[in-house]
Amino acid sequence: VKQFKTVAIVSTGTEILQGMYADTNAQWLAQRLCGLGLRVVAETAAPDDAACVESALRFAARRADLVICSGGLGPTGDDVNCEILSRVFGAKLVYDNHVHDMIVERFSRRGVEVPTGNDKQSYVPEGASVFYNDWGTAPGWFLSPADERGVSGDDVVAAAAIALPGPPKELKPMFDRYVPEILAERLSGDLFVRTHTLHIYGYPESEIGTYVSQMFRARSDVDFTILARPMGIDLRITGHAATVEALDALIDEVERETVSLLPRNAVYGTDNVSLAEVVGDLLKSRGEWVSTAESCTGGLISKFLTDVPGSSSWFECGYVTYANSAKMLMLDVSADTLSTYGAVSEETAREMAASARRLSGTDYALATTGIAGPGGGSDTKPVGLVYIALATSTEVIVKKQVFLFDRELNRVHAALTALNMLRGYMMEHPVHS
Amino acid sequence: VKQFKTVAIVSTGTEILQGMYADTNAQWLAQRLCGLGLRVVAETAAPDDAACVESALRFAARRADLVICSGGLGPTGDDVNCEILSRVFGAKLVYDNHVHDMIVERFSRRGVEVPTGNDKQSYVPEGASVFYNDWGTAPGWFLSPADERGVSGDDVVAAAAIALPGPPKELKPMFDRYVPEILAERLSGDLFVRTHTLHIYGYPESEIGTYVSQMFRARSDVDFTILARPMGIDLRITGHAATVEALDALIDEVERETVSLLPRNAVYGTDNVSLAEVVGDLLKSRGEWVSTAESCTGGLISKFLTDVPGSSSWFECGYVTYANSAKMLMLDVSADTLSTYGAVSEETAREMAASARRLSGTDYALATTGIAGPGGGSDTKPVGLVYIALATSTEVIVKKQVFLFDRELNRVHAALTALNMLRGYMMEHPVHS
Fold first, then answer.
1. What is the Cα Rg of chain B in Å?
2. Cα angle, residue A171 at apex, residues A86 and B411 outer, rounded to 5°
3. Are the CB atoms for B308 and A374 separated by under 8 Å?
4. Can you tell me the distance from the alpha carbon of B429 to that of B416, in angstroms, rounded to the nearest whole number?
């Protein structure tokens, strides 16, 4: 079979060409394809217009061994890709009964009849390896080069093709389940590449930079990137090796060296783990429970915690006491405290956390009260001021922070700071059994 | 002079093709160009490689009247664009003294000699209108179509070209200062373009498609897009007109026609509004309050509601009763109900909503209980099953849904369905004063 060295990505969607959003599918695909040792030689976005899509596919096919096309497989009239792909890559469309059955089953599980438009999604190119869609309705597929299928014609390009649905929630899992396996025999190199990410919360990017910059310069066998994201700082380590074992050993060694240069417990997790997952794992391993009492974060801490599958074995409940009346009614915050110190105060945060812990019977409670913005600030209590409290069996710790972001990010950082306080406490207070 | 109708964007930079970042320059340029009444027919990203850049430029030039190329004008060896652009568009490079002086001045202000590499940045194509760079060193430029310059050749393309530096901090201000003015005489009439978005929740994309497809085909004066997003369906209407007034009238007319074809109240809002904002606006105008009682959504409904600035004037509180013990303790759900019907049941949802409304003293309460997944499902209660309840002054309405997404999206849709139930109720029950 033909070996693939180069790949071109074609994204379709009029919205992209109108600047509604950046083509993040292409970015994600480029990362994955580089990880498979392929060279991405072009990324093209075309509007949902037959002539534009066709010319983009022909351009891509001239440039690369393999064309990956995303989008345009939906049920509506502006989803034109299936027909164009079949013409350009030389394979007539055939009805796939299994795809049809999956679509019928998907709608029947929801107690709905299959809408007319969805029927056209049961057609796939003849000879294609079909990627069945467990995350939506449109199937994807891989079509080998025309000459391997005994197809030729003036209008038929030589490249192989992969089609994927446009929604990222379908494209990503479909790629990961099907594409590496189907391409394995066509990838020439023994090149193993992996990017390993260390997540850090609560330190400025520049401070992290000073800890690691010397090592970054010294090691030429590994690529480093420091990325400041809204959710914290990512240190990305990219290694290359001839075998999986050598790659694992290299990444392990560099991770240990990096962690040793950073403050104790600064790295909260690696790769796809979230701060809430780390907190959940710690709680679970200790057999402890947490509850929340939220004002300015309005449910965001409990949302983050319950994002974690299995959180029901360590998250008990949350009190979202947005109004002052709710703080009194649900959490027994005293009217005195509210009138003397105000709802946004160390004292209110302290009472909220202590009450939540006592009422729910949990080991820990996290509380927030603050001014998320854009309105509601004053000279003494500016927008972004948040008191964050952690109640434990022995004490209530309150942290005062002033965040300088917008409403959304002020809330996110108040919630993450609360989670990181609980993580830090558990790291410093191991359970002795 | 030649009038421009179509434009193609070429972005260069190896990092883009390695998936380091999404091509946000292309997104920004597409927005600006659509705003100028041009149609963006292709966006292509190419690595910093002469053959790749040249083929991307030639593809772009075949597709469009104007090619806008960004990046690759820097001082280093991998910045190859200037030479390639001059060859493809047929203009030899000439030394520009003013550019040179600006570069020298820029470095001298920093007390630094001009590095060798920067000298090549003083060359621009002969006959180009130069965009002097106040934000960096590389100049940009506009080159009119070859035939207007009396240039021809087999290798020379017919399109006009604009070159811009890659760093967004240089590209954006340079575009805004120079490009609209230089293109003004070449833009054919309809200078005013606007995209208006109608947001819909609770209908499948294909169903919406059947309502509007006939009108979409019939109206050639407007572009339509249907976009299925995680948060619902967007219907995008893009109109063009010669005056702002005509454009407003056109968009208004098309919006009214579209809404009249859709189910009553299907459109919850337009442009940048969120479902939670619409719910908040309705509550505020009615002087009513809402509270929440959440199990599977774990605080997400209250998070969505408190995302809205000013939500403290209509959102009272939320009960995040994740554990069964919390449902009993915080919301008086009876042990009988939990043991007879289970936590995930219509009866539990009903009691949660009714209790939250009663305890908090609000006009409405929204409740959810379900199985977000990935674990916890059974034959009778599958993953994705959610009961969503709305308590009002006269009744408790419970809706049963089975979502087939992942944990995150199942939770998002349970929360949005709850918000949409409250919106629907308020729309159908106007306040009589």
1. 29
2. 140
3. no
4. 20
Residue A100's Cβ-count burial label (10 Å; 0-12, 13-18, 19+) is middle
Burial of B12: CB neighbours in 10 Å, binned 0-12, 13-18, 19+: buried
Alpha helices in B262-345 (DSSP H): 275-286, 300-306, 324-331, 335-341
Question: DSSP letters along B365-403, please?
Answer: EEEEEE--SSS---SSS-TTEEEEEEE-SS-EEEEEEE-
Q: Provide the mean pLDDT of chain A.
A: 92
SS3 of residue B315 by DSSP: strand
Q: Peptide bond preceding B374: is omega within 30 degrees of 0, i.e. cis?
A: yes
For residues B349 and B357, give the distance between their C-alpha atoms in angstroms, rounded to a whole number: 12
| Distance linking the first and last C-alpha atoms of chain B | 63
Q: Count CB atoms within 10 A of the CB of residue A5.
A: 16
Asked if A42 and B52 come within 8 Å (Cβ–Cβ), the reply is yes
If phi > 0 it is left, if psi is from -120 to 50 it is alpha, else beta; for residue A16 that is: alpha
Tens of pLDDT, residue by residue over B267-292, are 999 988 999 999 999 999 999 999 99
Mean pLDDT for the stretch of residues B94-104: 91
* Contact between residue A81 and residue A69 where contact means Cβ atoms under 8 Å apart: yes
Assess whether the previous peptide bond of A382 is cis (omega < 30° from 0): no
Taking contacts as CB-CB distances below 8 angstroms, the residues of chain A near B47 are 40-41
Chain A nearest C-alpha distance from B73 (Å): 19
Kindly report, residue by residue over A218-240, the tens digit of the pLDDT. Answer: 887 787 878 777 788 989 888 87
User: What count of other Cβ atoms lies within 10 Å of the Cβ of residue B60?
Assistant: 28
Answer yes or no: do B226 and A78 touch at CB < 8 A.
Answer: yes
CB contact under 8 A, B210 and A116: yes
* Cβ–Cβ gap B299/A319 under 8 Å: no
- How far apart CA A295 and CA A355 sit, in angstroms, is 14
Alpha-carbon distance A79 to B337, whole Å? 48
What is the token pair recorded at A116? Answer: 């007319």
Answer yes or no: is pLDDT of A47 > 70: yes
Of B39, B213, B309, the CB nearest to A77: B213
Contacting residues for A249 by C-beta, under 8 A, at least 6 apart: none
The model's pLDDT over B42-87, given as tens digits with 9 standing for 90+, comes to 999 999 889 999 999 999 999 999 999 999 887 776 678 999 999 9
Residue to substitute from B320, B381, B406, interface A, most A β-carbons within 10 A: B320
Regarding an ipTM greater than 0.95, the answer is no
Map residue B253 onto helix, strand or coil. Answer: helix
Structural element, H or E, at residue A365:
strand A364-370
Q: Calculate helix-pair angle for B50-63, B81-89, nearest 10 degrees.
A: 40
pLDDT digits (tens, 9 = 90+) for B117-153: 777 889 999 999 999 998 888 899 999 999 999 999 8
Nearest-CA distance from B313 to chain A in Å?
9
Inter-chain residue contact A316 with B305, CB threshold 8 Å? no
